[in-house]
Serine/threonine protein phosphatase
Amino acid sequence: MNERMTFAIGDIHGCFEKLRSLLDVCRSSARDIAHDFLFLGDYVDRGPASDQVICYLMREQASAPSRFRCLMGNHDHMLCRAADPSRTDAELIQWWANGGEETLDAYGVDDPSDLPAEHLTWMRALPLQVRDKHRLFVHAGVRPGLPLEDQSQDDMLWIREPFLSSRLWHGALVVHGHTPTATRSPEVQANHVNLDTGACFGGPLTAAAFGPMQSAPLFFLNSDGLKFELKSRPATRRTPKSFS
């Protein structure tokens, strides 16, 4: 394999040490093969080091923007809304109740509006999707039956059903996170790949390696140092009781 690879990485949620471990594993696995990183959103909340995650991603993206791409997740969007002067009490409470307190602790502030302005500016500018020849990379998923160009922000950030149980072809393989898998392994179906393996709930942080010639992942890596392949098969999902 001598073609460029893209490593897509699932929800980080402030798990900075797992992020560093996974990136080391990816770079070691790639060896001398040119490679990019594409992050599927949810960099903040729940985990202990959201500040370190954002600082690291911002620095790496600034040094190599075409090789280090970051999408927006629903938690990143919730934080931006909670930090906005026009926020409602409901928006602040929703974010705080879903891991926002850990983000405040990590930054050492009492209000999300006190986060560094450059961090908030960076998060607000994150795109909702990236598409290549074979795949659509997005945080949560898409609305089945709706053209990819007509997908709403709300669905791309929040959708679970009917996307997760749909077996319709969406026009591209959808690579996403957002819904932690119960197995702590990625879920692979013919029409989507779920890379949220619950890093902030004790699971590993997971990456899928993609090449230019086929839509399906070449292999998977995780922050525990494992490299493995999965066949397309049904997998069990866990939907958290909170907003996730």
